[in-house]
Design a protein that fits this description.
Helix content: 10-25%
Strand content: 35-45%
Largest sheet: 18 strands, antiparallel, barrel
Structural class: mainly beta
Mean pLDDT: 89
CATH class: Mainly Beta
CATH superfamily: Capsule assembly protein Wzi
Number of helices: 8
Number of domains: 1
Shape: globular
Distance between the termini: 32 Å
CATH topology: Porin
Radius of gyration: 24 Å
């Protein structure tokens, strides 16, 4: 009899679902995640949540019962019997939405903020589903991800580049784990994805997670933490809702995690220079990452959020004292003869988000420094050294109040290009490190801004939305790694070689009954692709670069069980 009882309980754990206040909405969830931020700007949700530390926990932050069906006006939604509750409601569970995303790049890799997906040409598919369970203060969220990419051959760094330019390419990309191609065949990986096991008590949560994180107020890029790379294993101590104090509310997160390497060289096949291989194998030791983000909402200024972030990574072999595990509680480290600064890879940022709820608008800004070894005086004298910043503004305007329709405009600018000539000439850049030679990456993609080191980016988005439904146009200008450009062509600073992508896209999300559909079609014109100029002996100066066109198609479907 007891065996039958336990058998039934195990079966219930495997097939049933539930809702609790510790459940998260993963970073980048189509339709739902940005719905909450738009609703806050419209004055429909609590304005004390900053949206600068994600994933969100809407059950705690906004007292939302059904996280994936927040729009009460949805027609035709059918609640399924996929929730359960036992032991007088102490044990609860539910099935998480099943999500399928398909993407295709026609000419070469493009795109970021796509988690487990890789930069690849051809068809790529990402699938995720899972279950959430909670007993008292203990919660388990199992949401694995599977990615399959055709990973087709494409023209990368042109073989006709001068040998010295190829050598400088390796000078740069030998110090960061950003392979142009992830092997030469089909790529298939399974991850724990957006999974966690946590203890949650009142406003605080502690546990083990592999979820993607996003720190900062921006929408397109984030200097320190984004969902461009797959999630990594980390211990987390974080708030699940703002903590109220006499001077305002606070949110925060402290993490300690493990980053993984790819083992792939910058280019396949690798190149030589004077019969010597240019590729230098990277250390295989795993990397430890510690990080901290804190946000403050001053009680005297409505809608204003101020925050800071700091991260540090080290090879496992360099860990020793307690200070090496929690280095951000110490002052910025200075270079010494005994212990060089580059044994630790550090970066930090300060940010601001300011909402004007009466205007349904917000402005945000993030300013960061990369491996800063200057004291306060030198930072004032040369604030531009190793700096990067992101600036954005968002405005919602009523379109048809009777039907609850709105228009939204979002402008964002990101500047990661180095301004110091000495750093450029030493191939120094954001996310690159000569000692921790994988740089600030996990599994071959940048943990921070998806545009990557030395890049600049400008975007304009115009959208119509109603509830979860949204249709929009986006225009982007993306300058690839200007730090490498100036380093590679330092002898001439050939202004014709900047690699610039100009793109326009139509995108949107649409909910119908239990489904959320999302789609995007984007045309990208790459000017001087891979910084290459076509050779023209008849007119060697005014010659065209190698321009290519890439069409990116995305289509996704999410099924909500509850």
């Amino acid at each position: 009899m007891r065996l039958k009882k336990y058998t039934f309980l195990i079966a219930a754990l495997l097939i049933l679902p539930f809702v609790i206040k510790g459940q998260t909405v993963p970073v980048g969830t189509p339709g739902v995640e940005d719905y909450y931020r738009r609703s806050q700007l419209l004055g429909l949700l609590d304005s004390s949540t900053s949206f600068t530390i994600r994933p969100l926990t809407p059950g705690s932050q906004f007292q939302i019962k059904d996280l994936y069906t927040p729009d009460a006006t949805e027609p035709g939604f059918k609640a399924n019997t996929t929730k359960w509750s036992y032991f007088k409601g102490k044990f609860r569970g539910e099935l998480l939405p099943a999500n399928l995303l398909v993407q295709n790049n026609s000419n070469h890799p493009y795109g970021w903020n796509d988690g487990a997906m890789i930069p690849a040409k051809g068809l790529q598919t990402l699938f995720s589903a899972g279950v959430y369970m909670q007993y008292g203060i203990i919660s388990v969220q199992l949401r694995p991800e599977i990615v399959v990419a055709a990973n087709q051959y494409f023209d990368d760094f042109n073989k006709d580049h001068y040998d010295i330019i190829a050598a400088r390419y390796y000078d740069f990309y030998n110090n960061i784990d950003l392979p142009a191609r992830f092997g030469t065949g089909t790529y298939t990986k399974a991850y724990w994805g957006q999974s966690s096991i946590k203890l949650t008590y009142k406003a605080f949560s502690f546990g083990l997670s592999t979820e993607n994180l996003w720190w900062g107020p921006s929408m397109k890029n984030s200097l320190i933490m984004s969902n461009t790379a797959p999630g990594f294993k980390h211990l987390t101590l974080n708030t699940v809702k703002p903590v109220q104090t006499a001077i305002g509310s606070f949110e925060g997160q402290l993490i300690a995690g493990r980053l993984e390497n790819t083992g792939y060289p910058p280019l396949l096949p690798t190149r030589e220079y004077f019969n010597n291989p240019l590729y230098i194998s990277k250390p295989t030791d795993w990397r430890y990452l510690s990080g901290l983000v804190v946000t403050w909402q001053p009680k005297w200024i409505s809608g204003l959020f101020l925050g800071l972030t700091r991260t540090a990574q080290s090879y496992n072999k360099d860990l020793g004292s307690l200070g090496s595990y929690l280095p951000f509680f110490s002052p910025y480290k200075k270079s010494t003869a005994d212990e060089p600064i580059d044994k630790r890879d550090e970066r930090s940022s300060v940010f601001m988000r300011w909402m004007w709820l009466q205007e349904h608008a917000e402005i945000y800004f993030e300013y960061g420094t990369n491996n800063n070894t200057s004291d306060f005086r030198n930072s004032l004298l040369k604030p531009q050294d190793a700096r990067a910043y992101i600036f954005g503004i968002r405005k919602i305007m009523p379109f048809n109040k009777a039907r609850n329709e709105n228009l939204m405009i979002n402008v964002e600018v990101a500047q990661l290009q180095e301004t110091s000539l000495s750093k450029i000439n030493s191939a120094s850049s954001w996310y690159v490190n000569p000692y921790i030679r994988q740089g600030y990456t996990n599994r071959g993609e940048v943990l921070g801004a998806g545009i990557g080191p030395g890049a600049n980016f400008q975007s304009l988005d115009v959208s119509w939305f109603k509830g979860l439904k949204r249709l929009g146009l986006q225009f982007e200008r993306y300058i690839h790694n200007n730090d490498f450009y100036y380093y590679a062509y330092q002898d001439s600073y050939d202004f014709r070689r900047h690699w610039v992508d100009l793109s326009v896209a139509a995108n949107g999300e649409w909910n119908y009954k239990n489904f959320i559909f999302n789609a995007k079609i984007q045309g990208i014109q790459s000017l001087n692709y891979q910084w290459y100029l076509r050779q023209n002996p008849g007119d060697p100066y005014f010659t065209n670069g190698k321009d290519v066109f890439n069409l990116q198609l995305q289509a996704g479907i999410t099924y909500r069980f509850h």
